[in-house]
Amino acid sequence: MIGNPYPSAISADTFLFTNPNNSTLLDGTIYFWTHNTAIQQSGSKYIYVTNDYASYNGTGGVSTLPAPSADTGGLNINIPSGAIAAGQSFFASAKNPGTIVFNNSMRMTGNNSQFFKPAITSKRNLLEKHRVWLNMANEGGAFKQLLIGYVEGATNGYDSDFDGITFDGNAHIDFYSINLGSNLVIQGRGLPFTDSDTVSLGYRTIIAGNFTISINQADGMLNNQPVYLEDKLTNTIYDLKQSDYTFTTATGVFNNRFLLRYKNNTLAADEFEKDSNNVLAWIDKKNIKLSSTIENINKVFIYDTSGKLAYSDSKISSSEVVITNLKFKNEVLLIKIVLANNDIITKKIIATRE
Asked: N or C: which end of the chain has fewer CB within 10 A?
C-alpha cells in the first residue's frame, strides 16, 4: 500500500506508465479501497452496499457503486478516471523489487476536490480504446462492476498494464471476466476488434435469488456494437443493448455459465423468431403443456429458480407434450426444448399453485 504524498492530485497514468522506474517495478493496476456502508435491513429486504476495491489501469477504471442518478447521462461518475487525490492511498502489486518514485512531473492542476474526477489529457489517454462496463446487481444493492476493453498495445494474453486481477474484496458478490485461468476485474484485449471475439464471465455470490447483468456504459466502437450475453444454463443469447438480463442463481462460484459475445450466430434472427413463435408452452390444470407446429419435440429440460434441473425427458418424438405430476411452487420455470432439427428453444413460464 502506497499513497500520493503531494498536496495536489497526481496522474495515475504518469505514475504507472510514463515513469520508467515505476513501470519496471509495478504491475499496471492500482486498487482503491472504498468504504461504503455495512449491510442494512429495510423491512424484509437486505441492502448490500458493501466495501470493495475500485480499480484502475491502462484499460480504464471500475467502480464499487452504480451511477448515482440519471442526471449523469448514464455515465458512472464513481469510476476512477486516473486522478489520484492528495493523500489518497492505494494498493499496487510489485513485479520486481525496488523503490517507488514520486516526482513533480506526475502532479496535476485541480482534480483534487473529489476522489474521482476527470483526468487531464495524457499520453496514455490518447491510446485507441473501445470499452464496455458491465454491472451485476440485485434489488438489495449488492453490486459489482467489471470492464472489458479493446486497447492499443494490449494483447489477448495477460498484460500487466491492461489486465487487473480481481481482489475479491466484496463480501457478498464478485463478478469478473476469465482469461487464461485468471479472474479479471479489468481485461484489456488486442486490436483490431472483431465481432467474432468472445469473453468468458464468472461470478461468486453468497446471496441466492435474482440478479441483473447490465451495461453501465460503452465507448469507442462498442458504443454502437451489439453486445450479447450467452447464458449456457438456459441456452439463451440475450441482447444487452436492448435491455438488462435478469437471472436466478443459487449461492456458490459459477465460472462456466456466462459468455460475452458480439454477434448471435446460434441462429439467424429471423429463424430464431420463427421457431420460437411456433413453439408454445403453458400450464393447464397443474400440467405443463408444450406444442410445436413445425418440428417435433425431441427433448425437454425444466429448470427451477435456483438453476436446478427439475425435470428431463430425452426420448420424445411428438408435436405435443403434456408433463404431469411435476411439483412446483409459485416460481418462474425455464423450459429448454430441443426440436427434431436440433434447434433449441427456451420458454419461460410462471408456475403458480392452484
From this structure: C
